[in-house]
Amino acid sequence: MRYLETAVFNFESARIAKEAGADRLEVCEDYANGGFTPSLEFVQKTRELERIDIFVMIRERADNFVYTDYDVEKMIEDIGKFKELKVDGFVYGGLDSNRRVNKKYAKKIIEAATPLPVTFHRAFDICDDLYKATEEIAELGFKRILTSGGKKSAFEGRYVIQDLIKKYGDKIIFMPGGGIRKYNLLEIEKITQAKEYHTAGISGNDLLISAEEIKRIKNLL
Fold first, then answer.
1. What is the secondary structure of 186-199 as a DSSP string?
2. In 3D, which of 25, 32, 213, 22 has the Cα closest to residue 119?
3. Are 76 and 69 in contact, with CB atoms under 8 Å apart?
4. H/E run at residue 168
5. What is the CATH number of the domain that holds 175?
6. N or C: which end of the chain has fewer CB within 10 A?
7. What per-residue confidence (pLDDT) applies to 205?
8. pTM of whole model > 0.90?
9. Considering its fold, how many domains does the chain have in total?
10. Does residue 170 have a pLDDT over 70?
11. Closest CA to 4 of 207, 212, 201
């Protein structure tokens, strides 16, 4: 059985995705900039949806993935607030100025999130060495990596994802994401053999999830 995570940027999309069969929601805001930390009100309302896992994006700024001590302290504070809402996990990714995993900050985020799992998001795709980054991310205690294989889309990066899974699939979960739609999912699945997939499934400028898209992707899995 394959697992489907859906990114949602408003409550209506969260409701639609849940009813359409998504297995997990990644709750975030600001689709145009790749998503950042959502409001407590948005997460609280989404938590009222029953029987679906909710992972919250933790990203203090939308301009890049290089953070300051102040940024990280604010993110740790946010994690504490979201844990009180009984969320199921978090999504984070932080690098240094050389496009390498910032291990110092990652350790603090993992510690703050414990015992909940943390996904390392697509900041991974701009790392200078995806293989070294994978080893570090797994060692730090992240449970999965959301990735397009270092390319613009998961379809373009499907062979890189395939290789990463072959080399490190026993250490960490790789979740292809980036441009996944019903028309390219089967090719991505065939090549990567991944167990989890991520999509936004947005149908228009209003940032609403397409129920038909989510249902079709879930059925294909």
1. HHHHHHH--SEEEE
2. 25
3. no
4. helix 158-168
5. 3.20.20.380
6. N
7. 65
8. yes
9. 1
10. yes
11. 201
